[in-house]
Amino acid sequence: MLAAALLSCDPGLQALFTPSHPALGRYAVCTTDRPIDHVVADPAPDRPHFGPAEMLEALDAFGGAGPYDRGALARLYGGKRVRVVRGWVERGDSFESVTLLSPYPDATLARLRPGTMVITWTLPRPYTTPRLPFDAHQ
Asked: In principle, which of 61, 83, 100, 105 could form an S-S bond with 56, CB 3.0–4.6 Å?
């Protein structure tokens, strides 16, 4: 994960913006007061490879995976776009997909925070394809 000492993970935000029972892997939602450009420019040798920044509508930026109140999030942003940067990193024992979002909402969806939200999806290795249940009707 990104410079863990600078991140504060938030179970409330995780519950809002990620699936409660992902089919594969695990999620973490953390935040930092650092601007998104500083997170992307982190000089750590094992930092993720990041793509270009995008400016997205809030509902597009936060997606449909979590149970957050879409109306409340749209009202909070009031048409303001979210800066989103996506990246990935492979580690010896896992693959991580990282999404950076700024500004980000607090867990009550009542105010926007100026730092960066970091949503990380981790797929541990070795990964094997799940076996499908036997279908007796075939």
From this structure: 61
Which residue type occupies 33? D
Of the candidates 82, 84, 83, 85, the one whose C-alpha atom is nearest the C-alpha of residue 50 is: 85
Tens digit of pLDDT for each residue in 102-134? 999 999 999 999 999 999 999 987 765 555 565
Report d(CA 102, CA 54) in Å as an integer: 11
How confident is the model over 8-28, as pLDDT tens digits? Answer: 999 999 999 999 988 899 999
Q: How far apart are CA 107 and CA 10, in angstroms?
A: 8
Are the C-beta atoms of 56 and 90 separated by less than 8 Å? no
Prediction pTM value: 0.85
